[in-house]
Task: inverse folding
């Protein structure tokens, strides 16, 4: 949680950190400021002190919503700094950052660097700033191990409520997609038709998904997956827009919207087949559902997340499928890990890969996905079931939002001959 930042900084021997970039769609900055329409901002936090928010004057009211200590960039005479730098924009910015660091009492020590910003600009400024402030050592961290992902790993009740609310938006949109598809007319060759009688394509469904998500005040900053046939058999294929919607094909619908402005995500997948399915597809779906249910019955407090990924691999291998446990980079069978944390990032700690550390556990406050799947692109089919789960403070694993697991969806205007 945010209150853990100082302890995590201490464990990493960081004396301060700096975050660059916009307040929106920038998880470290959003985490500290709460978002808002503030561009090209900077937050500097010294260990043991409150964070300080630097901003442009025209965005002062937006910045004030953060509740942080505020200092406008206009406090520093950029025109004079530019003269000192002989017109060198990067050096002028570095001179301003020197004054900002000095203002918050950071003149030496290890300083972590975070945020989403143009890499060239940050590199150029820090190169100059390092020369201006030789007592500071700027430190980069692996994304999966950064102090922010560590702090974000456990959520407080307010964060859980926001993620749950996004789950309600997600399943509302999924229900609208299901209702639309099952109400379509069907041509003799089993192609679905739009209201005007023309064939319904995957791209048409994509457009409706985007519209319905936007109507509910959410965004799709990381995209989404609505894929049929062979595309359903490649886990991150988003779906080919020109493909026509047909009966009897597997559909993997993986949707992960976020609050507008780069807020909290939800992650959810269902696999459908319209009208009917084949015996082989039904058998594979049933296996995915069986291990999903087994995992749900066996999740336990403080167990390493990767242990459940191993359980999933063992189950699928017992059914004759390849998995990462004994096949290097499989492209069919079970080809990914079981799940991941969810929050301001769609993928965050804890991770469940077989090489993940034992410290990535189902600890109280963690929110994870459970998403086993099977993929056979050359057979034109894929299957995944996913829900987002919260490890409550009492240790109970709670699914944040319920939604049915129906595989075959009956068509309202079609009957199998």
Result:
């Amino acid at each position: 949680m945010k209150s853990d930042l100082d302890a995590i900084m201490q464990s990493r021997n960081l004396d301060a950190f700096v975050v660059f970039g916009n307040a929106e769609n920038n998880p470290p900055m959003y985490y500290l400021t709460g978002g808002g329409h503030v561009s090209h901002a900077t937050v500097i936090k010294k260990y043991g002190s409150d964070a300080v928010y630097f901003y442009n004057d025209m965005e002062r009211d937006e910045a004030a919503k953060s509740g942080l200590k505020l200092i406008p960039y206009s406090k520093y005479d950029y025109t004079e700094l530019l003269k000192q730098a002989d017109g060198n924009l990067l050096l002028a910015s570095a001179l301003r950052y020197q004054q900002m660091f000095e203002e918050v009492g950071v003149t030496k020590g290890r300083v972590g660097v975070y945020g989403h910003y143009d890499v060239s600009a940050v590199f150029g400024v820090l190169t100059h700033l390092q020369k201006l402030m030789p007592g500071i050592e700027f430190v980069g961290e692996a994304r999966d191990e950064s102090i922010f992902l560590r702090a974000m790993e456990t959520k407080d009740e307010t964060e859980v409520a926001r993620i749950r609310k996004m789950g309600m938006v997600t399943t509302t949109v999924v229900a609208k997609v299901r209702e639309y598809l099952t109400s379509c007319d069907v041509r003799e060759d089993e192609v679905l038709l739009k209201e005007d009688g023309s064939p319904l394509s995957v791209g048409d469904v994509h457009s409706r998904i985007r519209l319905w998500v936007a109507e509910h005040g959410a965004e799709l900053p990381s995209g989404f997956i609505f894929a049929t046939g062979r595309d359903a058999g490649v886990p991150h294929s988003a779906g080919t827009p020109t493909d026509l919607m047909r009966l009897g094909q597997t559909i993997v619908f993986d949707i992960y919207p976020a609050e507008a402005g780069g807020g909290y995500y939800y992650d959810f997948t269902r696999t459908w087949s319209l009208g009917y399915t084949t015996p082989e597809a039904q058998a594979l779906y049933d296996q995915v559902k069986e291990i999903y249910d087994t995992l749900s019955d066996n999740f336990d407090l403080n167990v390493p997340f990767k242990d459940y990924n191993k359980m999933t691999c063992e189950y699928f291998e017992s059914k004759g499928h390849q998995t990462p446990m004994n096949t290097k980079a499989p492209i069919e069978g079970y080809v990914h890990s079981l799940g991941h944390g969810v929050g301001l990032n769609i993928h965050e700690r804890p991770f469940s890969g077989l090489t993940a550390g034992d410290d990535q556990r189902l600890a109280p406050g963690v929110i994870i996905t459970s998403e086993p799947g099977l993929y056979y692109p050359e057979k034109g089919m894929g299957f995944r079931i996913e829900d987002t789960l919260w490890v409550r403070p009492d240790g109970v694993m709670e699914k944040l939002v319920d939604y049915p697991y129906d595989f075959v969806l009956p068509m309202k205007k079609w009957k199998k001959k």
